[in-house]
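Components:
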Amino acid sequence: MTTVAAPYAGTALDRVDGPEKVTGRARYAYEHAPDDLAYAVVVQSTIARGEVRAVDADSVLQLPGIIATIWHENAPRVAPIEDAELTVLQSPRVAYRGQVVAVVVAETIESATEAARLLRVDYQVEPHDVELRADHPGMYRPDHVNPDYATDSELGDPEAALGYAPVVVDATYSTPAQHHNPIEPHATVALWDADGLTLYDSTQSASAVRATIAPLFGLPQERVRVVSPYVGGGFGSKGAPHAQVVLAALAAKQVGRPVKLAATRRQMFAVTGYRTPTVQRVRLGADEDGRLSAIVHEAFEQTATVKEFAEQTTVVTRMMYAAPHRRTSHRLVRLDVPVPTWMRAPGETPGMFALESAMDELAVACGIDPVELRVRNEPTVDPERGLPFSSRNLVACLREGAARFGWAGRDPEPGVRRRGRMLIGTGVASSTYPVYRLPSEATARAEPGGGFTVRIAAADIGTGARTVLTQIAADALGVPPAQVRMEVGDSALPRASVAGGSSGTASWGTAVVRACEALTDALHRRAGDVPPGGLEASVDTAEELRAQRPFSRHAYGAQFAEVGVDVDTGEVRVLRLLGAFAAGRIINPKTARSQFIGGMTMGLSMALFEESVMDVEFGDYLNRDLAQYHVAACADVRDVDAFWIEEEDPDLNPMGSKGIGEIGIVGTAAAVANAVHHATGLRVRDLPIRLDRLIGRAV
Amino acid sequence: MNGEGNSGPVFADPITADIMLSVNGDEHSVAVDTRETLLDTLREHLDLIGAKKGCDHGQCGACTVLVDGRRVKSCLTLTVTVDDREITTVEGLAADGALHPMQAAFVERDAFQCGYCTPGQLCSAVAVVREVADGWPSAVTPDVSGPVSLDDDEIRERMSGNLCRCGAYVNIVAAIRQVGA
Amino acid sequence: MRPFAYERAADARSAVAARAAGAADGAGAVYLGGGTNLVDLMRLGVVSPGVLVDVTRLPSDGVEETAGGGLLIGAAMRNSDLAAHPLVRRRYPMLTQAVVAGASGQIRNMATVGGNLLQRTRCSYFQDVTKPCNKRAPGSGCPARNGDHRNLAVIGQSEACVATHPSDMAVPLAALGAVVHIEGPGGARQVPMPGLHRLPGDTPERDTVLEPGDLITAVELPPLPFAARSRYRKVRDRASFAFAVVSVAAALDVEDGMVKDCRIALGGVAHIPWRAERAESALRGSPATEAAFAQAAAEELAQATPLPHNAFKVPLARNVVVRTLLDLVEAS
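Structure:
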C-alpha cells in the first residue's frame, strides 16, 4: 500500500469549526428548536429490583401545562429487539435503581420537572444484589468479550512456569466504576412528520443511531434521520444509543409534537453507561534479570441483568510483553446495576493499570530500572497471535521519553526525595491501543462554482475529525483545505462507522481519500471540466478493508509521571506528566497533541479522583454529581505534555495513521501509581489514589 | 432554612413575572416563570445557546455568564433576580463579526476540543483577567495581603470552576496567559 | 421545583415582614441570598418554599470599621468582595484564605456572607430525596452511618446524624469568635460564633440556633491584632473546587518562644465549624514547639468518635493542626 502525498497532513491547521465553538454559534443537540416544541423529563425508579405496580399519572396531569405522562401501560409499543436497554417503558420490570419508569411531557422545562418530581410510582420491591466481589457465586464465563475477542487465552503452562520462576509478583488490583461525564449531557430532540422520524441527537455515530432506532419503530432506515453536527464529548457513552433517544422518540410519538429530552447530570449516572469496576489478579514470573517466563492476568467484572457488556480487560496482556507461558481470562457477574459500556479505551485502561503496576512491582523485586525491564521483555512478534507487528515502537517511546523526561540517573530507592513538605517520586508505564478500521462510505463532489464538498456521516466529538478530514481531503484532491467543505454529523450523509475505538480517522479517512481519488479520476476523464450540476464520486471501503493483510497492528506509547505527596496530608499532586507516542503519521500536530494530553488528563483524573461509589443499601451510584464525582479541575493539571516518534507504517491505511483518541489515557494511571510508590514506598493497588489510602499508612 | 419551606407536595400553578432583561446590550421583554433560571431563559426563550447546561447544579461552569461584568453560574441564577442587571454571554464578548482576543487565543492554542465547556471557559477567562487586574487574591496567592499577578498557578486555580472533560486545561492556561500577560 | 412567589426586600425590616407574610399565607417562605445552595436544594426537591424573599439588595453589603479595630461585614456582601477587601486581607488573612478556598470564582461572586453561614450539608443522603435522612425528613433514619460516610463528621455527631457543615468561611469566623447580627420577628439580637451552629443531637433538622424568620444582617469581627498572622489550610481530594476533607483556621500569638494566645478551628470534621477550645487551652502558655502542638491537637481530637470509613480524618486533622501552627511560627 502506498500513502498519499501529504502537503497538508502534518500541518497544524486550526480547527475548522473553532470560530463556531468560541462564539457560541455551534448548535448542539438540545439546542435544536423545532416549532411547537414540548419538554420531556424522565422519572427514575427508586428501587433496584422489582416491578412497577402503578403510576399515578392522573394527579400530575391536573398540573397546568402538563401534556402527558407516559409509562409502561400507556407507552407506544416498540419492536422487541435484543438490546433490552433500549426497549424502555415496555414492561413493569425494574432491573436497576435509576431505570426510567415514566416520562412527563409539558409545555415548559419547569412544569415537566415539577411534574416528574411529584409523580407517584408504586413498586413491588425485590431484594437486590449490587456488590461486585471476585468470589461472587454468580461469576460466569461470557461467550466473548468486547467487541469479539476470546474470553480466555492460554499459552504454554503458566502455573508450572510460575512455580519455578525465581521471581514472582502476585498482586490483586482494583479499579472502581467510573462515569464518562461528558460536559454535554445526553440529549435528543425528536420530531415526527410525514417523512418519518428526525432525531437531533448527541451521538458518536449518527449512522448507528439510525440503524438501531429505525427497527425499534418499525421504520426503514431511510425514514429516520439523525442530525448531530456538534457533540459535547462522548468518551464512549455516546457510542451507542441509550434510553434517552428512544424515550424522546416515544414521547414525541405519543404527544404528536416535537419533544426535547436530556438526561440530567444526576440521571446520567444510571442511564448513559459507565466503566465496569474490576478486580484483577496479575501474576508475573521472571528470572533475576527480569525476563518474563509467565504472565497470568485474570479479571472479574460486573454487568447488568438487562444486557451483557463484557469488557476486554486482559486482552492487552495477550500482546504486550514476551513470555512463553501466559493465561488471560474474564469472568462476569450479572448484578442489579445499570448497564456498563465502552469508556475511553475500554479494556486497555483498567487492564494496563494492573499490568503496568505489576511490571513496576517486578522491576522493584528484581532491582531493575522499570524502563529497562520493559525493553527487556519486548516481543519480536505478537506473542499469542504469532503475527508480525505492522510497526511497534514501544522501545523508542520508552527511550526517547526517558531522555526528554530526565529519567537517567533515577535513584530507585522509594520514599527518600523531599521538596519542602512533599515526597517526590517518578514513575513510568507503557501504553498501547489497537488499530481498528471499520467500513465507511463517503462522497466527494466538485462544485460547479469551484471548490469541493466531501460528505460522510462521521462524528466530531471534539477529536478534530472535521478538521483532520478536511486536511486529508485537501491532500487527496490536491487543493488547499480552504477549498474543501467537509460535512459530517448527519445520517443523511454517506454511512460511517462510530467515533470509537480510535478508529475514526483511519476508517473515515480511507473513505474520504478513496472518494476524492475517484472524483479526481472522474475529473481527469473530463479534462477538469465540472458540469453545471457538479460532479460527484461515491465509495464504500468494505471491500478494501476485507483485503487488508494480516498484521498485529497497535499504537504504542509510554507515560512518565512525577508526583508530589504531601507528608502531612497524603494529598497527591501530579507535578509533571509526559507522554511519548508512536502512532503512525500524525495528521494534525495541534489537534493530535490535544488528543494525547486530553487522554492523559483523563488518566490523571482516573488515577487520583474518579470513583462511582455504589450505595449497597439502595443499589445506585451514590455520588452522582460533579461535586461528589470528582474529575480533574484546571488546578490539578500542571505540566502535561506529549510528543511523538516519527513512524512510517505502510500497512495501515492511505494516511499511514493510527488512532490517537484513547492511547493517552492508557498507562497514565499506572505511571502515577508507580510514581506514588517511588515517592512514598506505598503501593496503592486500588484506584483512586486518595489521601485516605496514604495518610493512615506511612506518610 | 432549618427545615422551613418543606410543605410537601403541592400542585400549584406557575407564577410568572413580566420583566425586562438586558443581554449583550439588547433589551428583551420576557414573561418568566419565577422558577426559571437565567440559563434556561437564555437558551430556551432568547435562543442564546452559547451558555451551556452541563450539570444544572453549579458544579461544572459551562453556564458561566457575566452579570454586571462579574462571572456567575447562570444555572443557579433565577432570572427574576437579574432584571436590573447587565448580562453578557459568550455571544456578546466581541463586536459583530470579530473575535474577542480571548476567543482568538482559544482557537490559536486549541484550548478546547468538543467545545461544550468553551463558552463558559471564555466568560470565566475574560473575568479572571479582570479579577487579577483588580488585585483580587486567590487560594494560591502566597500573601493575600499583597499584590497578585497572572501566573500559571493563579490561572489554574481561578479557572477551576470550569470543568473540561476533554482535558484542554493545558491549552486553556496557555491561551489565557497569552491574552492576560 | 414548586412554583413560588418572588419578592425583593429593600431593607432588613421589610425582608422580615415579607417573610412573615409569606409564612402566614401557608406557604413556606425563605430568604434568598446568592442562591448557590438554596436554588440547588430547590432543584433537588430538598426544600420547596412557596415564597422567596430576595435579600441580596439590602444595603448591608460592605465592610465598616468598628471601634477598637474590628470590622462589621454586611450579610449581603458577596464572598468575592469580602475576600478582596484590604482590611480583611490585612487584619484577618485566614478569613480571606478560607473564602477563596471555597467553591469557585463564579460561586463566590454570587454567594453572600449570610448565605454562606447557612449552607446546608452536602451529605449525599441529605441531597437525595428518594432516601432516608433525619436532617431532611426527621425520623426517617440515617443511612450514612452504615453506608457512605467517608467525608462526614468525626466529632460531635449523633446517632441521628453524621453530617458535616460545608462552609470554609465559617471556620475562621468560629476561630475569631465573630458575632452574628440577626434581625428577627422579635427584633434584633446577636449570637457569637461558634454558637450560631448547633450539634445534631436528636434534632439534626436544625442546623443553627436561628428561629423561623431570623435574618442575618451582619457579621462582626472582634479586634484581634495577632490574627494578622493567621492561616487557613484546606485539605481536599481535588486541588481546587472541592469541599474540605479537613480544614484548619489558626491564629497564633507567640512571644519569646511561648504561645501567648491562639485561635484554632476545624472544618470538615463536625456538624458545626469546630472551635478547638481544648487545644487552645492546652497551648496558651506552652512553648511554641512541634511537641506542644501535637499534644494540643491530640487533646482536642481525643473527643473524636470516627466511623469506619472516616477514621483517617483524625490523624489528618492532627497533622494539619500541627503543620499549620508550625507554619505560623516559621512565618514569624
